[in-house]
Design a protein that fits this description.
Distance between the termini of chain A: 33 Å
Helix content of chain A: over 70%
Number of helices of chain B: 10
Strand content of chain A: under 5%
Order of helices and strands of chain B: EEEHEHEHHHEHEHEEHEEEHEH
Strand content of chain B: 25-35%
Number of helices of chain A: 18
CATH topology of one domain in chain B: Alpha-Beta Plaits
Number of strands of chain A: 4
Shape of chain A: globular
Radius of gyration of chain A: 25 Å
Helix content of chain B: 25-40%
Number of strands of chain B: 13
Structural class of chain A: mainly alpha
Strand order of the largest sheet of chain B: 5-6-7-3-8-9
Largest sheet of chain A: 2 strands, antiparallel
Strand order of the largest sheet of chain A: 1-2
Order of helices and strands of chain A: HHHHHHHEEHHHHHHHHHHEEH
Oligomer: heterodimer
Number of domains of chain A: 2
Largest interface: A-B, 35 and 42 residues
Amino acid sequence: MIPLLRQRLRRDWLQLSLWIIGAVLLAYAGYVGVTQSYSTVADRQEVLAAVAANPVILMFRGLPSGTSVGAFLAFEDLPWLAMLAALMSTFLAVRHTRGDEESGRSELVAATPASRTLPLLATIVHGLAANVVLGLLVAASVIGAGMDAAGSLLLGAAAAATGVAFLGIGLVAAQLMRTSRGANALTVWLLVATFVIRGMGNLAGTPSDDLSRIDSAWPVWLSPFGWAEQIRPFDENSPWPLVLGLAFGVVLAIAAVGLQSARDLGASFVAERGGRASASAALASPHALVWRLAWGSLLGWVIGGVLTGFLATTLGGIAGQVAGQNPAVAQILEKIARAGDLDEAMITVFFTMLGVLAACAGVQTIVRARQEEAHGTAESVLSAAVGRVRWLADYAIVATIGVALVVAAAMVAAYAGLAAGGAPSDLFRVVTVTGLGQFVAASVFTALTALVFVLAPRATLGAGWALVGVAAVLGMFGPLMGMPEWLTDLSPIAVTPVVSHGDVDLRGLWWLVVAVVVAGAGALALMRRRELASDG
Amino acid sequence: MDTVIRTSGLTKHYGRVHALDGLDLSVTAGQVHGFLGPNGAGKTTTIRILLGLARKTAGVAEVLGRDPWKDATDLHRRIAYVPGDVSVWPNLSGGEAIDLLSRLRGASTKSSEYRSSRERLEAAFQFDPRKKGRAYSKGNRQKVALISAFAVPADLYILDEPTSGLDPLMEVVFRQEIARVKDAGATVLLSSHILSEVELLCDRVSIIRAGRIAESGTLPELRHLTRTEVSFEAADAGAVAGIAEAHDATFGEGRARFTVDSDAMASVLPVLAQRQVTGLRIEPPSLEELFLRHYGDESAS
């Protein structure tokens, strides 16, 4: 067991460090955010009251448990801390069980005198240890910021207990499903579902008279996230729901050991579905193949677009209330949106995020071309009667359509939100202008990634996502962090046309169009001379 | 018309690495041409250039009389290719991948001709087309490429170590398919390092070494270049003494052994007859020895 754990530590330390550092930073940044943006009890009271009044936000925030700094911190941060711990744990569980089994590594271990269940037991120990470290460091960062120890420890423990519960879920999913991809999909769906159930439970709860806390309804007890929130760190500090998460995780882990002992190596309890014996008539061109490969992930981005669009126009009212009473918030919104009244600013801010989502959809599709090339399937396609330029163009076309779909979905949802709220008609124009502008901005990323793919194939994945990441930070957070305008204006999503007090300001639109045309045409032209660059 | 593949002085440099260093290869129509060489000798690079997937650095490369880089798309309609390491799409079933690849080569998968040949090949290769790509073993991935290559008629088949991962029964099926397409008049370039396979199938062989053709010819021609091994029963090592043509004489287990240049064999026989040797065994060189002769020093170093 010890050598196995040591080897895993070597393999995992970077990945686990990133998850854990992410959680620690989130906790600490949450504390800084609360003390700076909502420094008085009255500020916090306003936000909590506004949330209780417009409960859509409750889905994305925690359980209101009073107006103290600590309770407010838990309200803002705990669901996301728990989410990080849960994702870390379930990916860890699947990676070291089903993942190793798929790659044949566990066959090597199983052939040694070590017992068949040893890798599974090592994974349990490994996962528990990772969660203990995460919980302790989160607590330490909040204690370091000056919060009281009991509440801080319970905040960390709440996140860790959720992690343990999902460790168990991941372990059982890995036993049930044939592939690690299938197991990860199952656990992520469960994670989203339990997160939503917890939100519904809070929505259906009873607010107190001053709207500063909510007594949740029964559905929260069906969700590990709900258990974590019922601890109410810095408020009730009630430790016993921790037992639920820990016990749940341990029971599932034991069940996983039982399932493992009852099956053959490589077998699974849920059989994989068989595929079609022959291809449908539609799967007859390289273009159709790209759709077939990309539609699943594009659908995910489109759903993200719908949510963003809907929130852009429905949250306007509530943000208006908060901002109306809290100049700091109003200032932040105006900084990001540069100008305009609050409703216009709200749409602009959310559509900046939409630009990031749409850029992700485009970049991911182009990155897929690189993955096909490195994996070797592009060789099969290109050695059939498919030209190089045509092949890349198909990815670019699907990427562009994907970007358009994400933006269109958001715009339709935003129109629906406006129509439902009976908003003035000029806001419809704001949605149209900012939406189309973000379509162009997102296409810049598609075109640039395609250019990198042609010129430096091995850098495609890193460069594509780095472009989106840097642009997102500059465009969304640059104004908040006080970066100079010339720097934030380097981000395509930050220079799209906006509507300010009814006037359309095109800003960098033509630069964006030039960038798309030059990079896109350059990529396709250079592709004529490019060789296949296999081996990753 | 006669020459299907012609390269002359073909070079390919990857930075400072010279993958091909003046390769002269010629394959005539209707031939099954063996392309032999160890890993890293440049087989796959040559094939990539012939398919227009890689660009030559210098020299001439012609496939079916055309430039494989510029006319890639048109040429590929007439070429069937099986890569050495077949990858399939993890979420497409094997049947879907076969149909897709055949359609990309311009075949109509609705024609009864295609469907019957696909059915025949799936039965022969004992292939289950319903599994998802990620569930296939190496051998089964190889079958996806082989079935889609043989299901649609082609003028030229380029096969890069096509039987790696296949079991011996499937190798027999593969050999039958090669015989079938050869009868139909197609040309085959078969890259391999399985010597028995090449000996069984190929009309001509080119041996590639360090980016150049080291030897090219029919098997009898190549055999001619190497030594034949002779052994007979003897009492001691002195039994070979006096045979001028004998090389590498050894003695063991009651037999004397030596080798003879294949073209000098005729002059050795009278000497052996004179000495009335018993248990005489004469073994012509196998392709394996040919191969070792060309690569022996390399593997030793």
